[in-house]
Specification:
It is built from 15 helices and 8 strands. It is α+β, with helices and mostly antiparallel strands. Strand 7 and strand 8 form a beta hairpin.
Length: 469
């Protein structure tokens, strides 16, 4: 365990886990415990003063009360109702302590600044903050007036040396205490910010999340060319009846989590799931030339994933659904809709056509449009289906993707790309295709291809994650 992990573990135990305790609750636990420790510890530093007995009882008594507040908050969740009792106890203690330590000539009144910082940090509401400021200002003013009008109430120092020791110690400790409070606040705020940033990045693309944070809005963007991938489980309704609701959700979560991984590895942006349907887009929000190839690669991987899952379930004498995959390429608009529960989405005829490609497909096959075929035909072996009727779209040229072209693949099944595939991909990404780049790459060019399916898989993932970013 690293030092940071140990520190986080200790603070989580003492002040509450950030996953289950809200920020205000953790801060209250922190400040009440710090107050308890400082008062109980300070009780044993007053023996050099002539009124040490009174100060000892005062510090110990209030320290125990602060510790009680901490326990009530940390273990009995009572922090909401403890704010004003805590603040009033803090003000009362500091007011009496200052009177018994030479008033403004001593060092105890410096703690009023630290205590006000603590009260403001814990307030959580502007009304509480204003009242706390007025309370501390009133206590300070009253202390100064009493010192002037009734000097007999103030216990003075016996010697200049005693004053020097007490004032310097109190001033130094007040600075340390304030610094610790600010550091605790900053650490907790940073922790909350990281949680909110992570949540936002899980909901929105990173560039979109950044724009939203900077401008409070996201402008819709037109994309001249992008590719939309739809998937849908075949036989889902009937098979789902054999699952309990919890089993069904877990099965969908397992599948869609794998789809998310595949989409991310192939630079696709997941848009949403709708029941048992899954939607992702290539070339959005960062435009690129490889979006169609990326979608087809992802579609083939999803197809193989579901096929393998189906084989395992069948071997265990359990039913399992098949999948249809549809892909279409064209122009679309992307942006955010709504002011609450933000959703990044895409619109346009391209999206509707992609949905028709999926519904007009065949279970276990990747079905692409003629527009997508023109963008990927140099990479993949495709089978023309003819003009297929699609609801509200008339007849559309459709193709099945059988796999990667044999001359661009390590294996005979067209599943694993070789170095020539990557070289062609690199050309497309950087410059677009040269018109004379042939589909039928001579076999002599395969001499640089990787050998072994495992090595090729590693290279594919490595390339997608680094070189193609």
């Amino acid at each position: 365990m690293t030092l940071l992990q140990l520190f986080n573990s200790v603070t989580s135990t003492l002040f509450g886990n950030s996953r289950t305790f809200v920020l205000e609750h953790r801060l209250f636990n922190t400040i009440t415990l710090l107050s308890a420790v400082s008062n109980i510890g300070g009780a044993f530093t007053v023996f050099s003063q002539k009124n040490y007995a009174f100060l000892l009882i005062l510090n110990l008594g209030t320290g125990i009360l602060f510790l009680l507040f901490y326990c009530l908050s940390r273990f009995w969740q009572a922090y909401n109702s403890l704010y004003w009792p805590f603040v009033l106890l803090l003000v009362s203690f500091l007011f009496i302590n200052a009177l018994r330590n030479a008033g403004s000539h001593g060092g105890a009144h410096y703690y009023l600044i630290s205590a006000l910082v603590a009260a403001i940090i814990l307030s959580g509401k502007i009304r509480r903050t204003i009242l706390a400021i007025l309370l501390f200002a009133g206590a300070t003013l009253t202390l100064l007036v009493l010192e002037q009008k009734y000097p007999g109430l103030v216990t003075s120092y016996a010697t200049g040396r005693e004053r020097f020791i007490d004032v310097s110690g109190n001033l130094l400790f007040a600075q340390i205490f304030t610094g610790v409070l600010v550091q605790v606040l900053a650490q907790n705020l940073n922790q909350e910010r990281r949680k909110s940033d992570l949540l936002l990045r899980n909901v929105l693309p990173e560039s979109i999340a950044l724009e939203l944070k900077q401008t409070d809005r996201v402008r819709p963007v037109d994309y001249i060319s992008a590719s939309v991938l739809f998937t849908d489980f075949v036989g889902f309704t009937q098979i789902a009846e054999s699952f309990t609701p919890q089993q069904l959700v877990e099965e969908l979560d397992n599948c869609f989590s794998e789809f998310d991984r595949i989409a991310k590895e192939n630079k696709l942006e997941k848009i949403k799931t709708i029941g048992d349907a899954y939607m992702a887009v290539g070339g959005v929000p960062i435009a690129n030339r490889t979006h169609a190839v990326d979608c087809v690669v992802a579609g083939l991987e999803i197809q193989r994933l579901v096929f393998n899952l189906q084989e395992k379930k069948i071997a265990a004498s359990r039913p399992y659904w098949q999948i249809r995959v549809g892909i279409h390429s064209g122009d679309l608009v992307a942006g955010i809709v709504g002011r609450e529960k933000f959703s990044y989405d895409v619109w346009g005829d391209t999206v509707n056509t992609a949905s028709r490609l999926e519904s007009s497909g065949v279970p276990g096959r990747v079905n692409i449009s003629g527009a997508t075929y023109e963008l990927v035909k140099k990479f993949f072996d495709c089978e023309f289906r003819g003009k297929v009727p699609a609801k509200n779209k008339g007849e559309i040229d459709m193709f099945f993707v059988n796999g990667i072209h044999p001359q661009l693949s390590v294996d005979s099944g067209g599943r694993i790309p070789n170095e020539r595939f990557f070289d062609l991909y690199r050309r497309l990404r950087e410059n677009g295709f040269a018109e004379n780049w042939p589909v039928d790459v001579p076999s002599a060019l395969r001499s640089s291809a990787v050998t072994g399916e495992a090595a090729a898989k590693v290279r594919l993932l490595s390339y997608n994650n680094s070189n193609l970013s």
